[in-house]
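Quick start: load a record and inspect it. Here is Fe2OG dioxygenase domain-containing protein:
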Amino acid sequence: MEVHVQEIASKSLSEGTIPSEFVRTENEQPGITTFHGPITSPPIIDLSEKDEKRVGEKMAKAASEWGLFQIVRHDIPDIIIHKLQQVGREFFELSQEEKEKYAKPPEAKSIEGYGTKLQKEVDGKKGWVDHLFHKIWPPNAINHQFWPQHSPQYREANEKYAECLHGVVNKLFRLLGEGLGMEGRELQEAVGGENLVYLLKINYYPPCPRPDVALGVPPHTDMSSLTILVPNDVKGLQVFRDDHWFDVQYIPNALIIHIGDQLEIVSNGKYKAVFHRTTVDKDKTRMSWPVFLEPPPEMEVGPHPKAMDDNKPAKYKKKKYADYCYCKLNKIPQ
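Running the structure step on this input writes:
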C-alpha cells in the first residue's frame, strides 16, 4: 500500500520538516526560482465575445506564445463547477481506509484510481500531492469502479460537468483549428473526434511546512491534446517562459486551458505544449480539477497535412497515443 502525502503532511506539519525525498534541488526550489518582478500572466479570453474571429486569433496567439490561457464567460454555470469542487473535497476528507477502496491496482496499465506516484522521476524525488483519476466521457470508456460512492452527488456532479464541457471543447477546437487553417471539426477529428476521452484528475496538495523547497508536481507538459483545468483559490500553478517561472493568476470561475503534447504534434509545433509545475502552500490546501482531452489509445497522432508544406516538413513522428504515454511516463525517449 502506498504512503500518501495527506498522511505525511499531518506528521510534517507538527514537526515543521518534510522527508528528504520531497526536498528539491536548488535549481527547482520555488523559493529560489519563482519570478518576483512585475506580474506577467497568460492571456484571459472572453469566450462570449461576439467577434469569434477575434477570439480565435487571441487563442492562436496565446497557444503559440504561452501554451496556456484562461477563458471566462464560458457558459458552464458556476453552480456546476462549485458542485464538482465540493464532491472532490469531500472525497479527500474521507478516512484513509475509505479512500483506499478506490486505489489504483498495483499492476494496472491504466492510471485510473486513487494514488500518489504517477511517473518515474530520475532522481527519486516525490511530489507533494495525492490524486484521483477517472474518466468522465465517453460513456463506454467510463469505469465506475473508480468513482467514489460516498455520496450520490458525486456521480451527478461529474456527469453534469462532463455534459457542460462538450460545448466548450467543441468551441476551443474549432477556434484553435481556424488558427491552423482548418475548418469545422478538422482539428478535433485529428485527436479523436467523437471518441475523444475526457480523463479527470483531482489533485490534492495538503499544507506543507516547507513550500519553499517542495513542489506539488514537477515541471512537465501534458500528454493530452488539451487540458481544461478548474483550480481552487490557492495559487500554485506556474508557467515557464523566458527562462522564468511565473505564477498564473487565480480568476474565480475561469477555466485554465493548457495546450498539450498532442496538439503541439498535430500543429507541427505552431502551438506549444505548456511547460508548467505546481507549488504548494504552507497553511492552505490547494486542489485542482484538470480534465485531459485524450485521443483513443490506439489512435495514431501526427502532424496534420494542413500544418505542413515544403517549407515546414513534419517535426514529429506519427505514433499511437498509448505508446506515446508509455514512453513519456517511463522516461523513454520518443
